[in-house]
Specification:
The complex is a heterodimer of chains A (about 650) and B (about 250).
Chain A (H helix, E strand, L loop, with lengths): L15 H8 L5 H4 L3 E5 L3 H13 L2 E5 L17 E2 L11 H11 L6 H20 L25 E2 L5 H19 L2 E4 L2 E9 L2 E9 L5 E5 L2 E4 L20 H8 L4 E2 L4 E7 L22 E5 L16 E2 L1 H5 L9 H13 L11 E4 L1 H7 L1 H19 L8 E10 L2 E2 L12 E3 L17 H23 L10 H20 L5 H16 L5 H21 L11 H25 L23 H4 L1 E6 L8 E6 L14
Parallel strand pairs in A: 1-2, 1-9, 2-5, 9-17
Antiparallel strand pairs in A: 3-4, 6-7, 7-8, 10-16, 10-18, 11-15, 12-13, 12-14, 14-15, 18-19
Helix pairs in contact in A: 3-6, 3-12, 4-5, 5-12, 10-11, 14-15, 14-16, 15-16
Chain B lengths: L3 E10 L7 E11 L4 H14 L22 E2 L2 E2 L21 E5 L8 E3 L2 E2 L2 H8 L21 H11 L6 H5 L6 H13 L7 H14 L10 H5 L7 H15 L3
Parallel strand pairs in B: 1-5
Antiparallel strand pairs in B: 1-2, 3-4, 3-5, 6-7
Helix pairs in contact in B: 2-6, 3-5, 5-6, 5-8, 6-8
The chains are: A alpha+beta (about 650), B alpha+beta (about 250).
Chain lengths: ~650, ~250
């Protein structure tokens, strides 16, 4: 049975990380090259960790399913990265970034981790500038900042609308530098499909070469998961098509607890769904809320085009309800309010499932050129997808699944409950509580990879007895056989429905019953339906081709099979947490004004689930959250 | 407004150890609001149900930024030359009744792996040869220590927008990777952080490009027309200047 020990260092909040770095055991420089580490994933967290561990002297193997580390989905992050530099002189500090993040997460994150994140934020900017990342600058040559939701200071650094791309290319550069030196061996087009545990320690992985289909065993002293989130359980999300939860899910089945799987971020500004054939949703950066004003008609069913609705018949509902934050309220509030007005029948567009994001005022105030300089690439993308011109017609937006705050449970060292297995970035649960603030995902991925793990992993490697493990060990043979059997089984079904067909069915159920608003009844219904969909999947799925070839249908089927299992845990967690908090809104738990009503007495904990076999109920472990610095209050952005 | 169209697709199919061929498929009732890749998804769903292996094509973000997707459509990289990736190309750009030839990017260093998927690892090898600033984590000075002229930062960003899709290579009659390499060399040549290594960087990247069998630049400018991110061909001029300067310097 797992015992959760967060290993939060003693001492005042602001000194914990510094002291911890001193207290961890170190590995002598000459001994580092004797240790090997596997890094799964090459996004911001994975690439930065692999590069930095190699710089320190460790022998690193890094895996990605893509043809290049530069393809990882971190690349799609648009808006920016937060840091407490206080360059605008508007009152920012490490403490304020820490405070905003804990509050933004609706008091469901671990304070010590968040404080460390805020401390690392400034180092990230220093490092990224040194890497030659072309951040936006002012005419004086100094770095420019903009504002994001949930903050009253401007602390977001950006590179046009492609900040994620630039930061990832920076991390990819660092990784390439280490590949060139021979410190990192890169395995591209190589999907990790199981974690291998020997004597209770994570000691390797099984990977599948996506071109030849070959399964390969790899052993190491530690395994680092940086595999992103599970948003694609909904089928439609802003995640890349191949993003999946499989590696994390296999880790869960091998003994890593899964924390808060019900925490999902629904991003308010995405292009609305427009057809059956739709394969994914596209995000329009939150930075647009700096200048765009969100509104719907005051009257229900008002079908007039936007420009024919006079000013006094428009409801700028965020500005009206939250005057101090206006259009820049946190994401969960912006999303939920969009749903509320659409449910009232005031949504716009052909489906009624959209609200306007209007730039007319900003264009009048700042000029079209200025708006184009700030958001040109986003407007272009919007135009390409919708065939409408946002300079003259307001954008239509609607919330979409975007990020998952839950993930593998980790202690302060970022180690999961499976010794030797670490989880970084979106893959872990630790820093964003029940809602992530904008421009914080890039910050967390890079903090974990560049600055946290390279300090904390030494402690494990220096203090743990690690016998040499051969890939001939029976644990490897067993994991490989299990993986092979599953692939064979998928190919053998030969049914009459496609993988996507099942994925869509599961996704729609999750969106309806475990999406923006959740009820006990809806969740129970989902719990009844998911096992049935899963059963049907294994009876009727059709996966053409063979296992010893490049076979995209098989890759997808293998991932969707895991989502079919994961979805159930997510719903169980949502059902258990009968309070509302952040992105998790239980309709039964709301204030009179319809805001999320937390229940701190009963739910101020991290819910970490332990696998007990698919047929048995998972065991819930609770890590009680203690707040030393931030006072628990009803979050208010009014 | 959304509409539907019918298309005939001639799609390149190629499995391991075999020579490729075109197969003809019908794409009926294609919604003009769908993206090109969504159109292929629908065709693949139909093929799967018929027991035919779906068309393999590379894709991931479908937002035009990861650089995974890209095929030739009627000989054009990414299907049009309107600064867009294939995933962001929408079916409203096509006419009812059209026949489209869809094939993989063609270039000597891009080996076909399956159907429309090619091996672009040569581009990674060029970056690995020196397309970065060698700063170790922990070395960096305070970020505002070195002011950078806004115009230089913007020009560096223009070059840094490259998504590494390989369309420039596929569009070049010589299969040259000059625009790709030039974009990275330019980004660091324009920024002070890139200067300590600028000589070695340009030499190593160009040497790697040559060693991998990418062709020479003969100023056709097809690359810049094909680039979905609008990377300017002037970067190639900058690459050439950097390369000449580097080779005039004593080691």
């Amino acid at each position: 049975m797992i015992k959760l020990d967060a290993k939060i260092p003693e001492g005042p909040m602001a000194e914990k990380w510094t002291k911890h770095k001193f207290n961890v055991k170190l590995v002598n420089p000459a001994n580092k090259r004797k240790h090997s580490v596997i890094v799964v994933g090459s996004g911001l967290a994975g690439a930065s960790a692999a590069a930095t561990l190699s710089e320190l002297g460790y022998e690193v193997d890094c895996f990605t399913y893509s043809d290049s580390p530069r393809r990882a989905h971190s690349i799609a992050a648009q808006g920016g990265i937060n840091a407490a530099k206080n360059y605008p002189n508007d009152g920012d500090s490490v403490y304020r970034l820490f405070y905003d993040t804990v509050k933004g997460g609706d008091f469901r994150s671990r304070e010590a981790n968040v404080h460390r994140l805020a401390e690392c934020s400034n180092l990230i900017i220093d490092h990224c500038v040194a890497q030659g990342i072309p951040f936006a600058r002012e005419y004086g040559g100094y770095l420019d900042n903009r504002s994001f939701g949930g903050a009253q200071v401007s602390r977001t650094f950006y590179a046009r609308g492609q900040t994620g791309q630039q930061l990832l290319i920076g991390a990819y550069g660092a990784l390439s530098k280490e590949i060139n030196k021979g410190g990192v061996k890169m395995h591209t087009r190589c999907e990790v499909i199981d974690v291998v545990v020997v004597d209770g320690q994570a000691r390797g992985i099984i990977s599948r070469d996506l071109v030849t289909g070959e399964l390969t065993r790899h052993s190491a002293d530690a395994v680092v998961m940086a595999t992103g989130g599970y948003g694609n359980v909904f089928f439609l999300s802003t995640n890349a098509m191949n993003c999946n939860a499989s590696a994390a899910w296999r880790a869960y089945k091998k003994g890593a607890a899964f924390a808060n799987p019900c925490y999902t971020q629904i991003h308010p500004t995405c292009i609305p769904v427009h057809g059956e054939y739709q394969s994914k949703l596209t995000l329009m950066s939150e930075s647009l809320r700096n200048d765009g004003r969100i509104w719907v008609p005051k009257e229900k069913g008002d079908k007039r085009p936007a420009n024919q609705i006079p000013e006094e018949e428009r409801d700028y509902y965020l500005e009206r309800k939250y005057p101090s934050f206006g259009n820049l309220v946190p994401r969960d509030l912006a999303s939920r309010n969009a749903k509320i007005v659409c449910d009232e029948g005031r949504g716009v567009g052909s489906t009624g499932q959209a609200v306007y994001l209007d730039f007319a005022d900003a264009i009048e105030r700042l000029g079209k050129d200025n708006i184009e300089a700030k958001y040109g690439n986003l407007f272009e993308m919007y135009n390409r997808i919708t065939d409408e011109d946002p300079y003259t017609t307001p954008m239509m937006i609607f919330p979409a699944v975007h990020y998952t705050m839950g993930g593998l449970w980790v202690d302060y060292n970022l180690m999961t409950t499976l010794p030797g297995l670490y989880a970084l970035g979106e893959c872990n649960f630790s820093d964003h509580g029940a809602n992530r603030l904008g421009a914080s995902a890039l910050m967390q991925g890079l903090a974990d990879g560049y600055f946290v793990l390279p300090n904390t992993i030494n402690d494990y490697l220096a203090s743990t007895k690690l016998e040499k493990v051969s890939t001939a060990h029976e644990a490897f043979a067993e994991a490989e056989k299990h993986a092979q059997d599953k692939l064979d089984k998928l190919l053998a079904v030969n049914g009459d429905r496609t993988v996507d067909d099942f994925h869509k069915e599961l996704g729609l159920l999750m969106w309806e019953n475990c999406g923006m608003s959740r009820t006990e009844e809806g969740l129970k219904e989902a719990l009844r339906k998911i096992p049935k969909i899963r059963e049907e999947f294994w009876k009727r799925v059709n996966v053409p081709g063979s296992a010893d070839d490049l076979n995209q249908a098989l890759e997808k089927a293998n991932r969707v099979a895991d989502f079919m299992e994961f979805a159930e845990l997510m719903v169980k967690d949502a059902l258990n947490r009968s309070e509302s908090c952040g992105g998790h809104f239980r309709a039964e738990s709301q204030t009179e004004e319809g805001e999320a009503q937390r229940d701190d007495k009963n739910f101020a904990y991290v819910g970490a689930w332990e696998f007990q076999g698919l047929e048995n109920e998972p065991v819930l472990h609770k890590e009680l959250l203690e707040f030393e610095e931030v006072k628990l209050t009803q979050r208010s952005y009014k | 407004m959304s509409n539907t169209i019918n298309l005939t697709l001639k799609v390149w199919r190629q499995s391991k150890d075999e020579e490729g061929r075109f197969e003809t498929y019908q794409a009926n009732d294609v919604d003009t609001d769908a993206s090109f890749l969504e159109m292929l998804d629908v065709v693949n769903e139909e093929l799967t149900i018929k027991g035919v292996e779906p068309i393999a094509f590379e894709h991931d973000c479908r937002e035009g930024i990861c650089g995974c997707c890209g095929t030739l459509v009627d000989g054009k990289t990414h299907g049009s030359h309107e600064r867009t990736t294939l995933c962001q190309l929408h079916m409203r750009k096509f006419k009812d009744g059209e026949t489209l030839a869809i094939e993989p990017f063609r270039a000597h260093p891009f080996k076909v792996l399956k159907d429309l998927i090619v091996d672009r690892s040569g581009l990674d090898a060029i970056i690995t040869a020196g397309g970065y600033v060698s700063v170790k984590t922990g070395n960096a000075p305070e970020a505002s220590t070195t002011p950078i002229k806004k115009a230089d930062a913007e020009a560096a960003m223009d070059a840094a927008e490259c998504i590494g899709c390989g369309a420039c290579v596929a569009a070049c009659p010589n299969g040259s990777a000059m625009l790709f390499t030039a974009a990275k060399v330019s980004q660091y040549a324009l920024l002070p952080q890139g200067h300590p290594e600028r000589t070695e960087r340009v030499k190593n990247m160009v040497n790697m490009m040559d060693a991998l069998g990418f062709g020479n630049c003969s100023n056709e400018y097809e690359c810049a027309v094909a680039c979905p991110k609008g990377i300017d061909v002037k970067n190639i001029a900058r690459l050439n200047r950097e390369f000449i300067k580097a080779n005039l310097k004593k080691a």
